[in-house]
Amino acid sequence: MLDLLAQTGLNAVYAASYISLVAVGLVLIFGVMGVLNFAHGELFMAGAYAVVALYADAHLPFFVAVAAGLVFVGLLGLLMERALFRPLKDNPLGGLVASIGFLMILQSLAVMGFGVRMEHIPPVTQQVIEFSEKVRLPVARLYVIVAAVVLLTALWYFLKRTRFGWALRASAQDPEAAALQGISITQTARIAMFIGAALAGVAGALTAPLVSVNPHMGHSVIVTAFIVIIVGGVGSLEGAVIASVVYAVVHTFVTTFFDGVIADITGLSLMLLVLIVKPTGLFGSRERA
Amino acid sequence: MFSRFSRRTFLKSTAAATVAASLPRLAAAQDKVIRIGFLAPLTGAVAAWGKPGLDGCAIWAERINAAGGIKLADGDYQVEFVSYDNEYDPAKARTGATKLIREDGVSFIMMLGGDTWPGVQPVADKTGMLFSTLLPSDLSPETTTLIAPAEVHPIYNVTGVEWLAENKPDLKTAVMCAQDDALGLPSVATYLAAFEAAGIEMLDDPLLFDPATTDFAPVVTRLIANDPDIVCLDTCYSDYVHPICEQLFQQGYKGQIISCTADFYDQMIAKTSEEFMEGFVFQFPDFDDPALNADTINFADPNGFYAEYNKRHPGQWGAVSWEYASIMDLWKAAAEKAGSADPEAVMAAMKDGGKGDHAFGQADWWGSELFGIDNALVGDWPVVVIEGGKARVKAFKSIPDWYARHGDLLVKHMTAYDQMWNQRS
Predict the structure, then answer these.
(1) pLDDT-based confidence at residue A286 (cuts at 50, 70, 90)
(2) Residue A158 domain flag
(3) Domain that holds residue B38
């Protein structure tokens, strides 16, 4: 039983890692730009396809492909900011609808470029860390966990300790006051969009060898991310990380000890419970921040 | 189900399909043409059970047309496939069926079925058009113009379990996982009946997961927690079979695996190891298998078909690559017997005598107990095992024989999962 608990705990840590990367990016975009980016799951998908193209097809080293995926999806974020969200900045609903359109464009591009089928990505490594006969952590999963810790720590440092980070937070808390202080709202929006998209892209790139990569893989990711940011509090980065951990632990343990369908119901029930008890989410405030 | 499908391969296959589709039109200037509708998902998550079938049909049509076409009472006809991508959406399937009948004048429509059939059934009722499905769970007493002549999913899965019990009697316990959908649940009931009939104990209730699941580590952790002799993957889509097998490998499982499908098993071997995949049991052979050259097989030149398919679509061979083509063999024989492409006449000729030539041997029109109508063609089905990195047919086993001995168990489990025809809404 202890082995089962330990293995389930490791599974939960992995799940929390990639979910938090996606959710934090989504929260960052919403916090600074006030737009719910429905195409965020497809940015995750784009990161995965970057690994397909560069690692599986072009045989570049895996981490080169991941880095390229991060930059590529970050640039996609910049494109979205310039082409979709900036022209529609006074119309939050317009941004949301535009992101749904962009979602469909990205899916169609993936189908046109790679076809409809699951992509085969060779394993990065088959090494496994064996804690006991029944408690094992594949090294490919460890990469995701380490990357999540490093990137989220770096993001925290950037937001809390750098001038750009302060500008970003100021823009998120009160765009008009920030503008009066000389902060470029357009510039902070670009930075937020690049970082938010890049986080989704790197999550997709890192997990690509571990999941089924196909043009529709973003759907389940965005659903999970929305649940997480509602539980954590829309606009709260800390809330997104903590809610990712809570959701991953609950979902993983319920899947293991009951089944996956009950786990999904439990996850949604958790979201409903939070909405009823604390509609702003566990760490959210009435104003976005 | 899903595999490497590079941009180049996609473009090549699309170009080839376009050329293949246009060739019969050129021929139409000189010859009479029969149009056959192909109404299946060609894009979207379920496309892998549509597109490879259309690719197989293109090869079939070229072969038949080169051999003189379909010989009816009023002359020889070239055959042409008209495809419509229903994206596995019932409303689009209904639109497609109407378009294929009214605008394209097709004589027969092949479908994947499943979730799309309810959208099409009113069109079938109104027009009397003959339809085929790969999923006999679409059958009911009301579906009088719908046939399931290629595969009787999931009933044939009993043959794999029966073979396992006969050949590896030391395997005594099993666990199972499945996606919670219209494909997974009847298969769960079938495997439960098969394991019970074989005297293999289920260590746990089947572990159901949401079809949107992407991380299978928790599912696998639970599956192997009690050291089962057999892990059964039910009729999981390849999107699930591949990561589940990879997780089984990474979490140290060393027992037997059985699954309905193992599409692109070479990729599974690449992600695990040849040793890990050795002995993996499933139900769909590669058509280069020597066992398919037996006289009892009713699929013309299976080895040549497989070679041609792989030449045109490298690495894309899957469970449905041959099935739609085999349905066309059956339809062609019935149309030639009837001397007409009229749906009613073809259906009558096809079911004449209660027997038909299934790809894997002569079979019976069957199904009144399970489906409420004898519109499923059921006979022998192959049991396939991976040996030395290659799938090989180990036996052909009779589904009707198994049902005669254990049909009560199947009905019991199907009823428990609300999968009998009179329980479906």
Answers:
(1) low
(2) yes
(3) 7-153+290-378
Chain A and chain B share a number of CB contacts under 8 A equal to 141
Q: What is the mean pLDDT of residues A110-128?
A: 86
B214 at A interface, C-beta within 8 A: yes
pLDDT digits over B321-353, tens only? Answer: 999 999 999 999 999 999 999 999 999 999 999
Q: Is residue B176 within 8 Å of residue B154, measured between CB atoms?
A: no
- pLDDT < 50 stretches in chain B: 1-15, 17-29
Tokens read off for B255 = 């027992």
The per-residue pLDDT for range B43-52, each reduced to its tens digit, is 776 788 898 9
Question: Both B97 and B128 in a single domain?
Answer: yes
How much is the ipTM here?
A: 0.86
Same domain, B40 and B148: yes
User: What is the least distance, in Å, from the CA of B351 to any CA of chain A?
Assistant: 36
Check pLDDT > 80 for residue A59: yes
Nearest CA in chain B to A216: B45
Distance between B10 CA and the closest CA of chain A, angstroms: 6
pLDDT of A173: 79
Q: Do B111 and B189 fall within a single domain?
A: no
Å between B54 CA and nearest CA of chain A:
14
Phi, psi of A261, rounded to the nearest 5 degrees: -70, -45
CA nearest to A133, candidates B227, B123, B263, B102: B227
| Residues B57 and B146 occupy one common structural domain | yes
Is the CB of A252 inside 8 Å of chain B's CB atoms?
A: yes
Tell me how many domains chain A contains.
1
A198 within domain boundaries: yes
Residue in chain B lying closest to A265 (CA): B210
In chain A, % of residues over pLDDT 70? 98
Do B307 and B395 lie in one domain? The reply is: no
Among the partner-chain residues B4, B214, B221, the one whose CB lies closest to the CB of A212 is: B214
pTM of the entire structure?
A: 0.85
Mean pLDDT of all residues in chain A? 90
A56 touches chain B (CB under 8 A): yes
Distance from the Cα of B201 to chain A's closest Cα (Å) equals: 20
The B residues from 315 to 334 touching A (CB cutoff 8 Å) are: 316
In this complex, do B214 and A120 lie within 8 Å of one another by their Cβ atoms?
no
| B402 vs B235: CA distance, rounded Å | 19
Give the pLDDT of residue B233.
Answer: 97
**Domain residue limits at A181:** 2-215
Among A136, A145, A255, A266, which would you mutate to test the B interface (most chain B Cβ atoms within 10 Å of its Cβ)? A255
Please tell me which of the candidates A118, A133, A210 has its beta carbon nearest to residue B3.
A118
Q: Are residues B405 and B325 in the same domain?
A: no
CA-CA distance, B322 to B286, in Å (whole number)?
10
Domains of chain B: total? 2
pLDDT of residue B31: 66
Q: Which of residues 179-238 of A touch B (CB under 8 A)?
A: 210-212, 214, 216-217, 219-221, 223
- Considering the domain architecture, whether residues B121 and B76 belong to the same structural domain is answered as yes
Q: Is residue A221 scored above 50 in pLDDT?
A: yes
Is residue A256 less than 8 Å (CB to CB) from chain B?
A: yes
